[in-house]
Amino acid sequence: MTDEYFMMQALKEARIAYEEDEIPIGAVVVIKDKIIARGHNMTERLNDPTAHAEMIALTSAFNSLGSKYLPEAALYVTVEPCLMCAGAIYWSKLGKIVYGADDEKNGHRRITGSNWPFHTKAQVVKGIMQIECAQLMKDFFKTKR
After folding, report:
1. What's 17-35 look like in SS3?
2. Does residue 130 sit in helix, strand or coil?
3. What distance, in Å, lies between the first and last C-alpha atoms of the chain?
4. What is the C-alpha to C-alpha distance for residues 78 and 11, in angstroms, rounded to an integer?
5. What are the start-end ranges of the E strands in the chain?
6. What is the pLDDT of residues 1-40, one digit of tens each?
7. N or C: which end of the chain has fewer CB within 10 A?
8. 116, 81, 82: which is closest to 99 by C-alpha?
């Protein structure tokens, strides 16, 4: 299994969000090449600004494993995590974070700059399927303006 394969799975989640008129961000949590949790933005449906794709997927993974730490896991998310999600990723001790498109407006790097917001042992890979991830966001917001 490749990073591209799992990002395609995260994109499927993002498309579900799009169809539900949510900001189209999707995430999957993977351990040993197996998806153990999925999530997509649900802030409108749940009327909860913390119901981001990453938070939904992480909560599902914690519940599935009965653990609050995920050092063997990888999180694939279509858009750069915000500061809130970066904090949750840090505390969950994820081993790998993979994201597609940068988020210059709301991504964690806007606030943290060059400071590393993830666990010190975490590996970060960015830009996987960046064009597809960014295009879905552009298409969504084009309908809103």
Report:
1. HHHCCCCCCEEEEEECCEE
2. helix
3. 38
4. 6
5. 26-31, 34-40, 73-79, 96-101, 123-126
6. 899 999 999 999 999 999 999 999 999 999 999 999 999 9
7. C
8. 81
Query: Cα dihedral sign for 141, 61, 3, 9?
Result: negative
CA 35 to each of CA 10, 48, 59: distance values in angstroms, whole numbers, following the listed order:
10, 25, 14
- What are the catalytic residues? 54
CA angle 91, 32, 39 (to 5 degrees): 55
- Which sign, positive or negative, has the C-alpha torsion 48, 125, 83, 69? positive
Residue 122, number of CB atoms within 10 A of its CB: 19
The residue count for the chain = 145
Q: Which two tokens stand for residue 6?
A: 């799992």
Vertex 8 angle, CA 74 and 109, to 5°: 55
